[in-house]
Amino acid sequence: MKTVIANHGVPLAVYTDRHTIFRSPKADKLSLDDELSGKTVKTTQFGRAMAELGINLLWAKSPQAKGRIERLWQTLQSRLPVELRLAGISTIEEANAFLAAFVAKYNEKFAVAPKNPQSAFRQLEDKVNLDYVLCFKDTRQVDNGSTFSFAGSHYRVIRNGKVMPIIPKSKVTVLKSPEFGLKVQYSGSIYDVEQIEALPPKEAAPKQPKKPRKPSVPREDHPWRSNPVRLPKTTYEESDREILEALYSSRLAWR
User: Are 176 and 135 in contact, with CB atoms under 8 Å apart?
Assistant: First the structure.
């Protein structure tokens, strides 16, 4: 994809099969109601990169839809090894260098002019760094000291040779690629990282022994002990008026 963009520009769409590199297998499990409610599944790394570049992904639903490219691979699988042997190529590095001239020669002989001459590619914006898009990305949470763990190792975010101050528990995006190694994206900027030794585990604070709880005993002159108010006894045999008079008298006694 990087070679295609460098030679032709950013394609408006890419036509692929339904391999899990391009499309999550969980996408087929979404019902119509799920899609209408806005529910989505996590995209693949390739799908995420295409979304960042504004490239629309189209998935083939039948073998006939990608028959032409399959026939091309069949032709190359029988033709390209012979070309490599004739050129005396025996290493991957030599083969990759040979491919550029081979593609130009192959297209010159077999390419067909399109019916619509309008290009389906657009120019890549100058501010876009392809290496920071066509890479592996994952999210991590920063601990104290701008540190985070990734792939079993611990790293620290660096800016201008010094530790980049980041609020603990903030989210950062880790970028991994053979082009630049490991970097971190935070607040729209890219920073270097420095591998550090694993942080020592935090020592748990010693538990304080629980003090026995003493029962609270009211003093001798506590209102609860003195002048107890005794409510008159009422029975169901008394009339409503007598009950109301008893409640009213008890209220006056409490006052």
Answer: yes
Question: For residue 152, what are its two tokens?
Answer: 């079993």
Domain regions of the chain by residue span: 2-122, 135-196
- Smallest Cα–Cα separation from 59: which of 18, 24, 29, 31? 18
Residue 247 to residue 241: CA distance in whole angstroms: 10
Do 175 and 137 contact (CB within 8 A), yes or no? yes
CA 243 – CA 159 distance, rounded (Å)? 83
Number of Cβ atoms within 10 Å of the Cβ of 57: 16
Give the integer Cα–Cα distance in Å for 203 and 88.
64
Q: Provide the phi-psi class of 161: left if phi over 0, else alpha when psi is between -120 and 50, else beta.
A: left
d(CA 73, CA 70): 5
pTM (2 decimals)?
0.67
- The amino acid that residue 113 corresponds to is A
16 closest CA partner among 53, 65, 64, 58: 58
* β-strands 13-16, 56-59 pairing: parallel
What does the pLDDT profile of the chain (255 residues) look like in tens digits? Answer: 998 999 899 999 998 888 888 888 887 776 767 767 777 778 899 999 999 999 999 888 776 667 777 888 888 898 899 999 999 999 999 999 999 889 888 889 888 888 888 999 999 999 999 999 999 999 999 998 889 999 889 999 999 989 999 999 999 999 999 999 999 999 989 999 999 886 666 666 777 788 888 888 777 777 766 665 555 565 555 566 677 777 767 655 555
Amino acid at 173: T
